[in-house]
Sequence to fold (442 residues):
Amino acid sequence: MGGGHERHSQSPVTGPRSIAIVDCNNFYVSCERVFQPALEGRPVVVLSNNDGCVVARSDEVKALGVKMGVPFFQIRPLVEEHGILAFSSNYALYADMSNRVMSILHHFSPHQEVYSIDECFLDLTGMEHLDLTRYCQKIRQRIRKWLGLPVCVGIAPTKTLAKLANHIAKKQPQYNGVCNFNQMPSLEADRIMASIGVGEVWGVGRRLAEHLGRMGIETVKALRDADPKGIRQQFSVVLERTVLELRGISCLSLEDIAPVKKQIMSSRSFGAYVYSLQDLGEAVSLYTSRAAEKLRSQRSVAGGIQIYIRTNPHKEHAPQYHPSITVPLIEPTDDSRRIVRAALWGLKRIYRPGLAYQKAGIMLVELSPSGQKQAGLFPAVMGQDESRSKRLMCTLDRINQRMGNGTLRLASEGIEQNWKMKSGRKSPCYTTRWDEIVKAMA
DNA sequence: TCTGGGGTCCTAGGACCC
DNA sequence: TCTGGGGTCCTAGGACCC
Fold:
């Protein structure tokens, strides 16, 4: 295999590996249910920012045919008819629950890749004597008992197969929440793979599934049995790796240590249309400050910032405008004030009056480790200023961390913030704010 | 009326260089 | 008038993921 990126190189480990993926069921909905047990058994959805789209559905809602990501207003009739309960997303709560899940999992294997807020790969290679199906049942039971969250587990020699096993564990009750390809007769694996659509494979989205379907590759099994070289030619090296992974040949390694981000974004739709440069500037300032915080927390500096604003693309008859601009930062920096200054400069360049803006966003780019910052063009001028900046940003972060986000903020972020999001259905931050902790009533 | 946010990787094509 | 070929770097866009 010709070179390539390290993380895609084949594992030097000989013999099949045992990779597990633990995935929380309907994570956001399950988090809400932990603190409101009365929601159990009832149809529940969690909505995206601005209560715009459905981003999590309980089984009852899935059974009604509600798809992931549909605009909430489109399912209003169903909501009325079936008494669907809807919640604004409460990310502080979900992040906190996620951390708890991950730390429990860490006890089951130190080789852990936190893949997303509700998913985690574990390398269980070498622990097969424990009977991994039983071992993973223990994982399920512990997370259920300690946190009240339901999870399913897939086990296989590769990540792609583990994801597939997880899918099976979720859909087919006879597996009782744990599906282990490493202990499955190959005839049974064939049968199951022939019964699952190719679109369920990790890495095969809607477009690829359509394209593959036109070529007669409609099931997981058909993709597994396709010629890898041919797939590479017709599609890409990525899909070729998927084919190999489906055959049990590992191409994706488990990444214990999370790599630093290469770009950091912050964007948001507004609660109501925004027209003025002033309001857009406040929003852009806030987003930039949030991104800069993340930048500092991973100890990077940014070499540039991209700013974009846009009108509502769904309003086809309204005038459309979606410009963007990238502003280089002369000196790579992590100082919120400097980055915000650059962002506002860029915003002024692209702003046009008379339009109804629906969203703004920024992206920090050209990130590099903050230690090895290049000596500036004017080193004599920078030195003193720099250590001041460092102390100030450090203090800012510490106060906001302790007292809550937004306790201290730049004046440019505004006071009124009439562009703020709507979020009228939010549950309390049970676990992260003392003033919203569960109250026990006699 | 009302349509999310944050990431990654790969590829193609153009600019530029020798 | 006729005008090569190969390499690198960058960017935009598309696909995917949750």
Q: What stands out?
A: The radius of gyration of chain A is 25 Å. Residues 55, 115-119, 202-208, 236, 238 of chain A lie near DNA strand C (CB under 10 Å from a C1'). Residues 379-403 of chain A form the longest helix (25 residues).
